Amino acid sequence: MTEPTDPRTLDQNPTAPRPPSARRTQGDPSVVPTFAPPPPGRRRRRHAVVGTGHRAGMYVGALTGDHADVAELVAWCDTNPARMAYHDAQAGAALGLGGPAGLPQYGPDDLERMIVEERVDVVVVTTPDATHADLVARALDAGADVVVEKPLTTTVEGCRTITRAVARTGRDVVMTFNYRYAPRNSALREVIASGEIGRVTSVHFEWALDTVHGADYFRRWHRDKRMSGGLLVHKSSHHVDLVNWWLQDVPARVFASGGLRFYGDANAAERGMGPRPERGTGAQGDPWSLDLTRDPRLRALYLDAEQHDGYRRDQDVFAPGITIEDNMAVLVDYAGGATLTYSLTAHSPWEGYRVTVNGTRGRAELEVVERGAVVLDDDGHAVLDPSATPEAVQAAGGRPAGERLLVQQHWGAAREWPIPAGVGGHGGGDAILLMDVFRRDLREGPDRLGRAAGYRDGLRAVVVGIAANRSMATGLPVRVEDLGLADDVALTPAGESVPGVASSAAGGGMLDT
């Protein structure tokens, strides 16, 4: 495993697939917006990063690289001094300081003091999911805007906490839904918006996480449902947001089923797996283990930081204590009349997703293979980047990485819809997202795709996972209005202008220009 050097191509999860497209640093003008240069003498906005794990790296790279002309990194906030020191050293190197940046460090209890003392304009929140609501609300109340990683929060009360804080402060919350910016997903939105397949009647969405990336959620704090809300909140909020955005509609009713059927100690015992290593670091020839010493970034952020908080990033995926599901199926009825069937599997031999959108005039099908196979090296470790290993490419040859969007109207032949080139990780969307996060006020013209997301988009995404968790617990369908959040997730609440296209119930329409 090697450490990426270009922040534009750095994925937030080191075990995620790294297809060749993720290394692209130039994108198609149709999906990469243009921005005016900042006016001479304009003050850079001051940013603080709260939560300095691996996920923070993309934002630190942006603040000290491509967007350092409009944004300034001024402080760290975390419980672990080793992780703050690591990013401080990375920032210093990126800024050419010849040593660490020397930015002040604060603990979470001192969030408000940090915002005042460092004159922080924007707080970037990249902490564990269950802490988001409190940190977002406190930052808003202290006078800062917020950029928050998905998911927005994990509970109904967390949704209310953030909604109330926005209402009383009037400050801005940006959701970083980077999958909206992946050109393949933008292309599907264009198909739906154009009316090519008519009014949408149903969507089927299947997401397969493989035994490297999917397994990783069962090594980390995500394995505790109290911290992550389970994968239907932590991971699926990305996918639900895509459907909400594609349809320009909101969820109304949710029914779900799922369970822990592959990982965990009970499943290991049932399959006769025998004794397991307590942790991945140092394990020999075990394909389920993650050795932190094989990645300089992971070693510095976690293994070398354990002395401060005891957190282990490399727990065994078959150990006791896992409370999240690894197989999930969800049925969602939308307010506009469409139905979503969604499934998530966290132990697939390949990684990617398939989306089928049925409409009154035809059908659109998007298939994405992000990693065609998980193969092992000579030492028994999973190869994270098959595209860099000829033997791995050959082993995955039956399912090559790639993407394809087909559109077919009734009584007509299927045709391939073009997918523009993006920039960087997460399907070519990360670098484009960061442009909107840090310089959206300089954008030249509106985004005809309506990709920027706010806190209400975050609410509309997590509400499905929250309702699905309740449905799995009760065995009953759950209506969004029963959660007391219907007004918060409504498509056009008073004072909000929704860019983009008409709802799927209206039969589609042309994209705004």
UniProtKB/TrEMBL annotation:
Region span, Disordered: 1-46, 270-291
Report the domain of life of the source organism.
Answer: Bacteria
Tell me which residues make up the Gfo/Idh/MocA-like oxidoreductase N-terminal domain.
46-175
UniProt similarity note: Belongs to the Gfo/Idh/MocA family.
| All copies of domain Gfo/Idh/MocA-like oxidoreductase C-terminal, residue ranges | 189-479
Q: What is this protein called?
A: Gfo/Idh/MocA family oxidoreductase
Name the InterPro entries for this protein.
Gfo/Idh/MocA-like_OxRdtase_C (IPR004104), Gfo/Idh/MocA-like_OxRdtase_N (IPR000683), Gfo/Idh/MocA_Oxidoreductases (IPR051450), NAD(P)-bd_dom_sf (IPR036291)
| Record-linked SUPFAM superfamilies | Glyceraldehyde-3-phosphate dehydrogenase-like, C-terminal domain, NAD(P)-binding Rossmann-fold domains
